[in-house]
Automatic annotation (TrEMBL):
Taxonomic placement: Bacteria, Bacillati, Actinomycetota, Actinomycetes, Micrococcales
Name of the protein in question: L-idonate 5-dehydrogenase
Entries under PROSITE patterns matching the protein: ADH_ZINC
Domain Alcohol dehydrogenase-like C-terminal: 179-297
Pfam families assigned: ADH_N, ADH_zinc_N
Signal sequence interval, chain numbering: none
Alcohol dehydrogenase-like N-terminal domain segment(s): 23-141
Molecular function per GO: oxidoreductase activity; zinc ion binding
Cross-referenced Gene3D superfamilies: Medium-chain alcohol dehydrogenases, catalytic domain, NAD(P)-binding Rossmann-like Domain
UniProt entry keywords in alphabetical sequence: Metal-binding, Oxidoreductase, Zinc
Family: Belongs to the zinc-containing alcohol dehydrogenase family.
Organism: Brachybacterium ginsengisoli
Database matches in SUPFAM superfamilies: GroES-like (SSF50129), NAD(P)-binding Rossmann-fold domains (SSF51735)
Amino acid sequence: MRALEIHGVEDLRVVDRPVPDLGPDQVQIRVEWGGICGSDIAYWRRGVSGTAVMSHPFVLGHEVSGRVLAVGAEVTGLQESQPVTVHPARTTGPLPARLAGRDNLHPHLTYLGSAAQDPHTDGGFAEVITVDADQVIPLPEGLDTRRAVLAEPLGVAMHAVRRAGEVRGAHVLVAGCGPIGLLVIVAARAAGADRVTAVDLAAPARERALAVGADEALEGAQGMDPAVTVAFEASGAPASLDAILSSIARASVVVQVGNLPPTPVSVALGPIVSKEIDYRGTYRFVSEIEEAVALLAADDLAEHVISHVLDLEQAAAAFTAQVSDPTSSKVVLRIG
């Protein structure tokens, strides 16, 4: 089978690999679509994603969808050709009591397409993958596998909105309209936000924000409407966070969605104290991917997040488009 391996900085290779074995409690999936994530880009550009450092080649990708190819002898409820997506995380051992309900923070967690462990965890940019049956999420009637490739990043966005608390009836700000920021807009609307203001320096990103449900799209957060009480910083730019903290109303909630640099950054934190701002982090998701699948089936707004579709053999061009094309948003690989 074909698979996309990362061998070093800007060194992607489509290679032949054996089809992974199928265990009794596992499922083989013929992958049809794979979405390129910021972590995939980070490995490609620097060989590092967050604190995970690549030390040997591995298969990238954790946003995937496709169809069941085969099921293990002990698997029930799934059948061949059934359309599915995949929860990329697996945990080992019990979750500490203080983290109850927060499996995304499990101390022993592996993720598809990650170099956080050694040996690294191969990902989903391959024609066939094998995963545990409890990682497989069937698609509801009417949801095709192409749109379902957005389930994982939409799960991330829905978890971020959940971290904000109650947003129903609120005026929400989303700063940074890359794929995750756009999906935060979709998730905030689904959670009942009354008004959504999007912020991005790039005109194409602002246009996409309006297409997925933002009421207005601005170039900056300075001088924002005082009615904004919930903000999502989705760009990972310290200047964006600085503008939000200085401009947002008192007693507001700010959720950090974008990955900030691992090195010290310059942000004025005084407003967190003087305004009693709740500043919260958010990391991946727990079970929100199942809710994401349901939302994708019910609403096609998220389709606007996909900007490019290229074949697996065009992976280098796809990764380049993700970082260099000013019109790019979510770039998707056609695998199956």
